[in-house]
Amino acid sequence: MEQIKIWIREGLLSPHTLAIKTGETTWKKLYSYPEFFAIGPTQPPFSTTELSSTHPPGAPYLSRPAMPFQAGTVPGAFNGAHSSRPPVGVTSLPIVQHDGVRIALPADRIMAALVDGLMWMLSLLPLWFCLTLYFSGAVTNWASLKWAVLFPFATAISCLVIQGWMQAARGQSIGKSLLRLRIVPSTSDDEPPGFVTGVIVRWLLMWLFYLFPVVALVDFFFLFRDDRRCLHDHLADTRVIVMDE
């Protein structure tokens, strides 16, 4: 059980980590097992060089060899008998880092795309309504409604300009801004993609993909690879990262 001692010294396990002894049915905290921790006036303080300095002063220190323990489903549990891996929750984090920056989770990118899609739908709704009236023949005197006709085009163009400016200058769409995500070049973490890469290349690629559902599906599933970059990210040489708090 030396591996458990190492985990405690390195701060991967604390006295409050839950564990269960073989043959028992009750989960207890590690400090309640004298096999791991002994408290008494004759014991040296916890801050000695024998133990990690990451533990709080005055905490019990590791003493005698540990007894067998088994893994379970309780958070923080470990498998000392069959595995040398640290406990679940220490290294199994859903965070991918490249070059020291956090890559956006697929769920966050999907949510941002849904927000952007909703914004596009709302901006195009007046135009769709106007075209419906035109082709249905419900309105015959369009000259008297010229200002009303301009409004749907204005909303669509405004959304296009705002989204394009945000993506070129800040690397963010409205959805990515709400989710605190940012588009950056694959070799940088603090530069905006610019108008050509961020708007023309990425938008053109995505719109072309939408014309071919199979390609669009491949583009989507690329998001679940290790680097979490869609196909259009690779072609545009960009990536989507999580902004610092």
From TrEMBL:
Protein name: RDD domain-containing protein
Key word Transmembrane helix present: yes
Superkingdom of the source species: Bacteria
Species annotation: Termitidicoccus mucosus
Transmembrane segments: 117-135, 147-166, 200-224
InterPro entries recorded: Pra-immunoreactive, RDD
Record carries keyword Acyltransferase: no
Occurrences of domain RDD (ranges): 104-236
Membrane topology note: Multi-pass membrane protein
Subcellular location per the Swiss-Prot or TrEMBL entry: Cell membrane
One cellular component (GO) term of this entry: plasma membrane
Predominant location: membrane
PANTHER family, sorted: MEMBRANE PROTEIN (PTHR36115:SF4), PROLINE-RICH ANTIGEN HOMOLOG-RELATED (PTHR36115)
Keywords: Cell membrane, Membrane, Transmembrane, Transmembrane helix
